[in-house]
Amino acid sequence: MSETVASVAGTARGAGASGASARSAAFAGRRCVVTGGMGFIGSNLALELAGAGARVRVVDAMVPGHGGNPHNLDGATGSIDVTVADVGDDARVAPVVADAEFVFNLAGQISHLDSMEDPLTDFDLNARSHLSFLETLRRLSSPAVVVYTSTRQIYGRPRRLPVDETHPIEPVDVNGISQHAAEQLHLLYARVYGMRACSLRLTNVYGPRLRLADSRQGVLGVFLRLALDGETLRLYGDGSQLRDFLHVDDVVDALLAAALEPGATGEAFNVSHDEVLSLRAAAEEIVAATGSGRVELVPWPRDREAIDIGDFVGDSAKARRVLGWAPRVGFADGVRSTVTFYRGRRAWYL
Amino acid sequence: MSETVASVAGTARGAGASGASARSAAFAGRRCVVTGGMGFIGSNLALELAGAGARVRVVDAMVPGHGGNPHNLDGATGSIDVTVADVGDDARVAPVVADAEFVFNLAGQISHLDSMEDPLTDFDLNARSHLSFLETLRRLSSPAVVVYTSTRQIYGRPRRLPVDETHPIEPVDVNGISQHAAEQLHLLYARVYGMRACSLRLTNVYGPRLRLADSRQGVLGVFLRLALDGETLRLYGDGSQLRDFLHVDDVVDALLAAALEPGATGEAFNVSHDEVLSLRAAAEEIVAATGSGRVELVPWPRDREAIDIGDFVGDSAKARRVLGWAPRVGFADGVRSTVTFYRGRRAWYL
Q: In terms of CA atoms, which chain A residue is nearest residue B170?
């Protein structure tokens, strides 16, 4: 890991900072750590917290290809301290989290193909480092609330729809196994040590600061880039697989809701949208929002088909009930504002 | 890891070699690898296979306290090659497994308290090393059947009884999380790469070669030692928690059945007994079989109560149906023959 410790400051609210959550006012003056805070979701969260007057520290390993982007904190309101380190690096991370009141633990990589090509790296970063991080917090007797972000990928190919939190865990890639292990470790530390930890199982997330260069953060990033460039969005098969897509503002709101709700401790929550679309419909919406590009259906590549999960529809009733959270951004609106964000910033995300 | 490579040979069937399985004849002349083969279950399996004329190679890290015991292969019939290495040590392990037809992957440690005191070591040995081992097999394009041993601990505190394979996964310790990750990795490699891997989720196992020194391999080892020494067997609470106990001969039989059944690939199976006893009844049976010792009830220590799971009764209907396996050794008979084994060998297991 590099030794860089930077401080990012700005005087004006960044265009595209999420601004999603009325809950953020509760974090004014509070000491918050966002791991993975230079990445897609982490940076949106860090900007929201800083905008609300929180004292924000970001820890990010800045591993190439994993989503950390130096432009992601551009335009921050208030100061955000940045430490470049893996969350498993106890010596570097302990001073950052020592006095934290809230830890949003978003570090990791989520690329399914990367996890199959280099499974040990995926397992080290997404599972082992998180166990080390939990040990750091335990050693410090940290009283912080810890919100970990997991993924709907842990369920694998759904056996029933919609998928609630009791659905069997059958990941279709190493990434899903790594993230499930990390999630279970957080919940274990809550049960055994009284750590105020919970986990959000995120569905497909899109919005400002999503990586456009490739599909490492999901297919929508590539679709957005292709549409912005007036190129062809290729869908495997007939593109009829169902998905729910969640705007990052809604995810930030869920993260804040989980951090503020004592009843979340020790629990895992699906965080998904009740607006369900086919991949084809989503692609067509993106083409419509950008006014460029086109959709084409192509046969399945073998390596993709092996890990495809068919339709996925999440059930987030538990999050609605316990966290008092609900998604507020519809896909058409969310895509339009996302396209607006990328106009003029496209080059930073390639 | 030490560089030791030893060869163990004997001319007579070892007393206490499991002799449990009519299935073992199918392994005559076959190339078999047993990881963790110096340990409790692994050595019983290795002796059974060697006795049946299989060509047996054992890989064992011989980590102090983890069950590997130099006396465990005493009295082997036929030769058993032993390589002292961690399964994650690709350079040392690859030559051993290169031409294997059957890999019984039993390496690891199962102590719950150790996994909480040193979670990173547990995670490295029980999860990360197994991912590395699977990568070794994949790189070699190994056609071997791989049988991994998991544990009923992955279910945690039962939400319903009996516990079948669809029960939620909620481990109460790091060991359960590590072993679940390793199991899921095996099943993933079966699904994605066509590896002929399956997993057996073992209940509480007892029998010859169980560690007596401490409760790292379960409470029965300590109970056997205390009874043999004429001391007091202490039970927490009222000792009424239900468990099923499986004799190691039945486990060896299940391992062989899983290796021989093509329909096992990609599946996880509970391997448990339908004879359910309270811990108190089990302790009293041990005292009766040894003719010494006594049972006493004591209050729960706090660190134990935090990870106690209450009653556990497994449902092994799937193993019976798919593997054609069923337990054959009752607890009273199993304890009597186990006590006979330890008379005169007690010192080796302390």
A: A184
Residue-level length of chain B: 350
Task: Flag if A184 and B168 touch (Cβ within 8 Å).
Answer: no
For residue A190, the enclosing domain spans 5-209+246-274+314-329
Helices (H), chain A: 40-51, 90-97, 112-117, 119-123, 129-139, 174-193, 219-228, 248-260, 279-290, 302-305, 317-318, 331-342
pLDDT band at A21 (very low <50, low <70, confident <90, very high): low
How close A188 gets to chain B, by Cα (Å)?
A: 6
Strands of chain B, DSSP E: 5-8, 31-35, 55-60, 80-84, 102-105, 145-151, 196-202, 204-206, 232-236, 242-247, 268-271, 276-278, 294-298
Distance CA B262, CA B197 (A): 10
Q: Would A168 be classed as within a structural domain?
A: yes
Total number of domains in chain A: 1
CA-based angle B240:B279:B350, to the nearest 5? 150
Helices assigned H by DSSP within B87-197: 90-97, 112-117, 119-123, 129-139, 174-193
Pairwise CB contact (< 8 Å): A127 & B131: no
Return the closest-CA partner of residue A190 out of A98, A262, A253, A97.
Answer: A262
Smallest CA–CA distance, residue A116 to chain B, in Å, is 10
Asked if A34 and A42 count as a contact pair (C-beta separation under 8 A), the reply is yes
Cα gap A282→A146, rounded to integer Å = 33
Whether A181 and B185 lie within 8 Å, measured CB to CB: no
Across the interface, whether the CB atoms of A135 and B119 are under 8 A apart is answered: yes
pLDDT at A156: 92
Taking contacts as CB-CB distances below 8 angstroms, the residues of chain A near B180 are 181, 184
Q: What is the pLDDT of residues B127-185, one digit of tens each?
A: 999 999 999 999 999 999 999 999 999 999 999 999 999 999 999 899 999 999 999 99
Sheet strand arrangement including A102-105: A5-8, A80-84, A55-60, A31-35, A102-105, A145-151, A196-202, A268-271
B292 or A11: which carries more pLDDT confidence?
Answer: B292
pLDDT recorded at residue A11 = 30
Contact A119 B131 (CB under 8 A): yes
Q: Do B166 and A166 touch (CB under 8 A)?
A: no
Predicted local confidence at residue B307, as pLDDT = 67
Most distant CA pair in chain B: distance in Å?
54
Cis peptide bond N-terminal to B162, omega within 30:
yes
What's the one-letter identity of residue B271? V
Is B224 contained in some domain? no
Q: Which residues in chain A are contacts of B173 at CB distance < 8 A?
A: 188, 192
Residue A214 has pLDDT above 90, yes or no: no
Helix-helix angle B90-97:B129-139, to 10 degrees: 50
User: Would you state the structure tokens that stand for residue B272, as one six-digit string?
Assistant: 């448990």
The interface predicted TM-score (ipTM) is: 0.90
A34-48 tens-digit pLDDT: 999 999 999 999 999
Question: In which residue are the tokens 């009283």 written?
Answer: A143
Kindly report the CATH number assigned to the domain that includes residue A90: 3.40.50.720
Q: Is the peptide bond before A70 cis (omega within 30 degrees of 0)?
A: no
Q: Low-confidence residues of chain B, pLDDT below 50?
A: 1-6, 8-20
Residue of B124, B150, B185, B308 to mutate, interface with A, max A Cβ within 10 Å: B185
Nearest of B115, B69, B333, B35 to residue B210 by alpha carbon: B69
Q: Is residue A217 part of a domain?
A: no
Please, what is the angle between helix A279-290 and helix A219-228, to 10°?
A: 30
Closest-CA residue in chain A for B172? A188
Q: What is the pLDDT of residue B259?
A: 98
Q: Is A291 part of any domain?
A: no
Cα nearest neighbour of B156 on chain A = A188
Whether residue B188 and residue A169 make contact (CB cut-off 8 A), yes or no, is: no
CB B253 within 8 A of CB B328: yes
Q: Please name the member of A166, A171, A185 whose beta carbon is closest to the beta carbon of B177.
A: A185
